[in-house]
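Q: Fold this one first, please.
A: Sequence and structure below.
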Amino acid sequence: MNETVIVLLTLSYSLILGIIVAQVVLTSPVVFKVLDNDNASNFLRAIFPRYYLLLFLICLVASLISYLWFSSMDLWIALGASILAFIGFIIIPLTNSARDRGWNRLFKFLHNLSVLNTIILFIIAVAQLIRIS
């Protein structure tokens, strides 16, 4: 297999890991320490759609690379990651709406779904990096 193709897929999954780690380790914890609740909420409402959209686009790139040069299993894994990132993207308005309306159970469910999606995306990226290395 072409070395460039392997590097591109490795880069895709590495970017996914980097974005997730930056969000979880750097951005989210600092937001609540530096900003008051209203400003933290506004910031997070602005950043999370971009976060999931970026993850989704990178997963689509991994899907295309997998489709063109890797096995069908790699394609399905990348498509699964794309679906998870897309679900994370589309539930953001629902999560915000549930929070605004005081629907705490729905908010908690959607927030936990978002966290679970991120954890699974992280695991997929690590597993794929190990597989293709």
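Q: Good. Now the second chain.
A: Here it is, same layout.
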Amino acid sequence: MATVKMKRYKTVLHHRIDEILKANGKPLFPSEDLNGLLPDLYDLASFETERLYEFALKDRERRSVVELISALKRIDEGVYGTCEDCGKPISEKRLQVAPAATQCIECKVEAEKRERVESIRRTHSHHGLQLGEPPGGN
């Protein structure tokens, strides 16, 4: 990929990292000291639910930053824009939408299909069923 495009992608990646880090002015790993500020169990339960939600969001943001930094590293290594599965170029359109992408759209679709099948298998095996076996067994 051309050097000008790589510089543009580097700028986009840095901009996205900055956006995530500055979002809401809150740190990625918030820590709070309650010091007995919650008067009852209902308030505590509500606070904990909100805090778990916040941690889930921050964890997603943290993972996004890691993916974006990895993309910057791939630019420096000269492999950015190449599918890690098939080795073919990742389309410009895909990189514009998902600049940290590591797979071309075809490989990503296949990976997602495999993940869905594996999820269904785990769910069925958790319930004691094997794929292809009719419910109730014989």
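Q: Anything worth noting on the second one?
A: Residues 3-103 form a domain with the Four Helix Bundle (Hemerythrin (Met), subunit A) fold (CATH 1.20.120.910).
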